[in-house]
Amino acid sequence: HREWFDKVIAMTGDKTLDNWKNKKDYFTGVDKAMKILMPNASETERTLQARKWYQEAVVKYIKEHPESLNKKVVDLLKRLKSKFILALLTSNTKEYIQQILEASGIQGIYDIVFASSVEEVPIKAELFKKFIETYGQPKFYIAGRGKEAFEECVKLNIISIYFPSEEINPEIEKLASRTARTEEELEKLIEN
């Protein structure tokens, strides 16, 4: 989100938008920026444009920072692919997720890619609901962030594994069924 806000700060000249970086409710800052940039557009048009810019920023960042991809996790996913059907459930958009996977060099690693549409405001509860309606309940949900997704797992009785790549968030750890701190721990939790 930092890259996205940098872009709109440059476009608007409004440095107060910098305060929305890394905030949980950053969508409020996105709305504020988009109203400045597109005052006569509908909410849907502003959402479409904001999400488009965000996805472009993600692809650009990954291409410029290939070191951001955790190679150990990629290797683990490749090993797990031979034993499980791997699904990517993401609030990134259908329209851009393939570009993101390609930029990361991991296209084809997931058997199922389930993403939101660029027209939608990404709501994890809705994504989970649609995923389960389409494919059934997953055996595990594994993520390194996103409290909202872990809350959904609790509601839906899905075994969730918290696998943080950064500092542990105690709120998420409480919600998660299990926590893995290393790739080895994660592999053991999944295979047992």
Residue share in helices? Answer: 40-55%
Based on Cα principal axes, name the global outline: globular
Biggest β-sheet strands, sense, barrel: 3 strands, parallel
If you compute it from the alpha carbons, what radius of gyration comes out, rounded to the nearest whole angstrom? 18 Å
Distance between the termini: 36 Å
Q: Biggest sheet, strands in spatial order? A: 3-4-5
Describe the structure in your own words.
This protein is mainly alpha-helical and 192 residues long. Helix content is 54%, strand content 10%. The chain has helices at 2-12, 26-37, 43-64, 71-81, 94-104, 124-135, 147-156, 170-175, 183-191, and strands spanning 87-93, 112-116, 141-143, 160-162, 178-179. The strands form two sheets. Strands 3-4-5 form a three-stranded parallel β-sheet, with helices on both faces. Strands 1-2 form a two-stranded parallel sheet. Helix 1 packs parallel to helix 2 and helix 2 packs across helix 3. The longest helix is centred in the N-terminal third of the chain and has 22 residues, at 43-64. The model has no long low-confidence stretch (mean pLDDT 89).
Task: Write a short abstract of this structure.
Helix content is 54%, strand content 10%. It has 192 residues and is mainly alpha-helical. The model has no long low-confidence stretch (mean pLDDT 89).
Task: Lay out the secondary structure.
Blueprint: H1 2-12, H2 26-37, H3 43-64, H4 71-81, E1 87-93, H5 94-104, E2 112-116, H6 124-135, E3 141-143, H7 147-156, E4 160-162, H8 170-175, E5 178-179, H9 183-191
Helix pairs in contact: 1-2, 2-3, 3-5
